[in-house]
Amino acid sequence: MHKQTIKQLMQGLRDKSFSSTELTQHYLNRINSLDSEINSFITITDELALKQAATADVLLAGDTKLHDLCGIPMAHKDIFCTEGVRSSCGSKMLDNFIAPYNATIIENFNAAGSIMLGKTNMDEFAMGSSNETSFYGAVKNPWDLTRVPGGSSGGSAACVAALFAPAATGSDTGGSIRQPAALCGLTGLKPTYGAVSRFGMIAFASSLDQAGPLAKTAEDAAILMNTLAGFDAKDSTSMPRDKEDYTAKLNDKLDGIKIGLPKEFFSDDLDPEVATLVNNAIKELEKAGATFKEVSLPNSEYSVPAYYVVAPAEASTNLSRFDGVRYGYRCDKPVDLMDMYCRTRGEGFGDEVKRRILIGTYALSAGFYDAYYNQAQKIRRLIKNDFAAAFNDVDLILSPTSPSAAFKLGEKTNDPVQMYLEDIYTIAVNLAGLPAISVPCGLKNNLPVGLQLIGNAFDDARVLNVAHQFQQLTDWHTLCAPFAKKG
Ligand code: GLN
Question: Least buried of 120, 139, 241, 316, by fewest C-beta within 10 Å?
Answer without folding.
Answer: 241
